[in-house]
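User: Can you help me understand a structure? I only have the sequence.
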Amino acid sequence: MIRCIIIDDEKAAIAVLTRFVERMPEMELVGVSTNPLTGIELIKTEKPHVVFLDIQMERKDGIELAKEIGHMTKIVFCTAYFEYAAQSYDLNAIDYLLKPIEFARFKIAVQKVNDAITGHSTPVEAIKDDYILVKHGERGKLQKIDIDDIVYIQAMNNYVSFHCPPQKTLAYLSLKELEYRLPTCGFIRVHKSYIVSVKYIKAVDNNEIIMKREDKRIPIGANYKESFLEKLKGNLI
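Assistant: Let's start by predicting it. Here is the structure, written out as tokens:
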């Protein structure tokens, strides 16, 4: 069993990594912290095999923290910034994950950690992650949702609704969490309440997207329009 700790000052990022760990039977989460100062104490107390460590945090950044950790625990950096990669390998980090982190990439990092612990060398292959499991309905029930079937996802208070015509599935989580979990090449946030599948876009009509199935019209939020158009720009003729 690989014992791990997560240190990140963003609760949404911790939630995503926690869900990833829960999907890996060989892993055990022994602690989380949003505070790097208490995080180092947690590492000393729990003595985990690996820490998933954010870099840009208040009070103390992940690079400084990694120097304190030394060789007592293996490190996988989790960050939204490319520029720290060279420094991370100088600190003998096992891996460097760029946010939003996809589960397939997370599994490769775990494979590297396991190899470092056991001394084995496993060829790293891209692991296809073509579905997600969400808590649904009564306690203990998990619903499998195929990524290819998702047309769009809508936020509904504390829930999200996965629209996979003719099915709809409600799950207790946020769109922010889903942004970390869904493949970035296939999905895009277009509104505070909507994420859409790019392959199911039928047309763009001013500030609305028309989806292929059911001709559903989805609004494009003012804060998301620029990034949405930028994503589509490469296919514009």
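Now, to help you interpret it: The CA atoms of residues 97 and 106 lie 8 Å apart. The chain has two domains: 2-118, 132-235. Let me know which part you'd like to focus on.
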